[in-house]
Amino acid sequence: MHKCSIASSISIAIAIAAGVALVGCSTPNTYLVYRDAKGAPDMQVDYPNSGFCKQVEAVAAGNVKCEGRSVASELGATATLYYDPPGLNVIAHYPNMSSCERANSRMAMGVKLLKRCAPKG
Fold it and tell me: Which residues have CB under 8 Å from 14's CB, separation 6+?
């Protein structure tokens, strides 16, 4: 059993939606994984805890789910995003450089590209 403290409500904006998140217990399922129609990973965002991940999952569009296992090793590029509010850096993983650059060419309100797309490896 995990000890938890619930932080005050914080609003977040992401490229695909906006919502309110409650920062909760630090538990598994912190990787928000987007999958294509065949089930292959198309993008992953690493969140600090499952409560935050689940709040984003609730407003995300498409085949997306918070998962306990990272698929980052299957993806070829990364970028670091900054969510304001709540003042949070997250790492996003993409299949390749072109998909990373395309996804980050226009940012949603409250999301900034902190570290540009870079290939892995």
Answer: 45, 56, 59, 60, 83, 108, 111
